[in-house]
Amino acid sequence: MAGTETSLNAFETSHVEQNGPVTDKKMRIGIIGTGWIAGAHMKAYLNQPDVEIVAGADLIPGKAEKFFSDWGVENVRCYPSHKEMLDDESLALDAVSICTYNRQHAAPTIYALEKGVHVLLEKPMCVTTEEAIEICRAEKKSGKVLSIGFQPRMDENMKMIGKICRSGELGRIYYIQTGGGRRRGIPTPFGTTFIEDETAGIGALADIGCYSLDMVLNAIGYPKPLTVSGYKSAFFGTDPHYSGYPDSKKAEYAGKFGVDDFAAAFIRLEGDIILDFRIAWAMNINTPGDTIILGTKGGLRIPSTDCWNGTVGGEMTLYHEVAGVQTETRIPILKTNGNLFELKIRTFLDACKNGTPAPVPTSQILYNQAIIDGIVRSAEAGREIEITIPEV
Ligand SMILES: NC(=O)c1ccc[n+]([C@@H]2O[C@H](COP(=O)([O-])OP(=O)(O)OC[C@H]3O[C@@H](n4cnc5c(N)ncnc54)[C@H](O)[C@@H]3O)[C@@H](O)[C@H]2O)c1
């Protein structure tokens, strides 16, 4: 079981509970990039009573038109790129969802912010730290809301990890092991935009590694990353015999593969905290291990999943001492009230309407991106490097 479709389905929950619009004003939305994830955005937007989809763009001729027609939404003005759309529509738009592939995250986001439009940008934030800084600067200058599309944040189990870390139950946290992986799960169900360098730029690291990092960094308050010793490889993706590719596509996909399918790193964080990380789209083992968070008073084990997508894989266990007795406390799986994608869209809309902070702010995700970029640069240099993050 693997692949992006499975990953998305894992976020489907039983029913949707609206938090309700904050005002009656309809939000006029544009969708940039009408590929696979744009469908999840559409589905969520169409369930909001205060949303009107007014414009869309895709580089592939006719793709945006077909997308909106397939969703049964009429009178959406379609454009051949984000630029034409924002040049024509900025006054008619309140917000955009940016659903383009990774290498096309920075340019449309910066352009939309410059045009005075709120942005919900899909994860990963972008490809390089430099791009991330440019995005943060454009956001600061614009005064608009920019939120990054990490829907696992909306999951009650994810929130529980943060509550446990902040409760003091673990004492002083000094070591974290995180990551995840799939035996055969290079995402190619809809083509090659995830595996080509010119569209994706980064592979497993950006696709699912960003979730693992966010799970633990958000829980401990996103300390600044200081140094990283990283490794990456691509043994499976470049193999024309890779069993995860369809038979008719093996040679083509292997030839196009230009990103990582495995990465590992040893990261030092501010506060003398060590982060030990590994991520895989493909590997010859079932899991690279559970996430563990070690503190001076307690330890937390968060089970991994067989198709890593940023969810908690089962009951968490808290290892601590009670009255001097070594004790294990099970944390039952919590139910999230609503669908994670709809909560991601709703919390973004509410922030735009209320002028409140972005639900998943760039001030945090900048560090996530700097770690990913640091792993890439360290791996290429073959040694530990310092992570330097310019002022925004
Ligand atoms: N949050 C999640 O669970 C989740 C799941 C899957 C994908 N994603 C993210 O969403 C992004 C897109 O993934 P996808 O699977 O939909 O990719 P995709 O390749 O199916 O779709 C991307 C579309 O964007 C278009 N595009 C690229 N640049 C453009 C531009 N400047 N203007 C207009 N259109 C442009 C492409 O032509 C393509 O149709 C990726 O960054 C991925 O990491 C997030």
Topology:
Layout: H1 4-9, E1 27-32, H2 36-46, E2 51-57, H3 63-70, E3 77-79, H4 82-89, E4 95-98, H5 106-114, E5 118-122, H6 129-142, E6 146-149, H7 156-167, E7 173-181, H8 204-219, E8 225-233, H9 250-256, E9 262-269, E10 273-280, E11 291-295, E12 298-302, E13 316-322, E14 325-331, H10 340-354, H11 362-381, E15 385-386
Parallel strand pairs: 1-2, 1-4, 2-3, 4-5, 5-6, 7-10
Antiparallel strand pairs: 7-11, 8-9, 8-15, 9-10, 11-12, 12-13, 13-14
Helix pairs in contact: 2-10, 5-6, 6-11, 7-8, 8-11
Nicotinamide-adenine-dinucleotide (NAD) is lined by residues 4, 8, 32-38, 57-60, 63, 81-82, 99-102, 104, 108, 122-123, 149, 151, 190, 193, 207.
Walk me through what this model shows.
There is one protein chain. By secondary structure, the protein is of the alpha/beta class. The chain is 32% helix and 23% strand. The longest helix is centred in the last third of the chain and has 20 residues. The chain binds nicotinamide-adenine-dinucleotide. The site of nicotinamide-adenine-dinucleotide (NAD) has 29 residues, from helix 1 and helix 2.
Distance between the termini: 41 Å
Helix content: 25-40%
Structural class: alpha/beta
Shape: globular
Strand order of the largest sheet: 14-13-12-11-7-10-9-8-15
What is the number of domains? 2
**Which ligands, by name, code or SMILES, are bound?**
nicotinamide-adenine-dinucleotide
Q: CATH topology of the largest domain, which one?
A: Dihydrodipicolinate Reductase, domain 2
Overall pLDDT: 93
List the helices and strands in order: HEHEHEHEHEHEHEHEHEEEEEEHHE
Number of helices: 11
Q: List segments where confidence is low: pLDDT < 50 over at least 5 consecutive residues.
A: 1-21
Biggest sheet statistics: 9 strands, mixed
CATH class of the largest domain: Alpha Beta
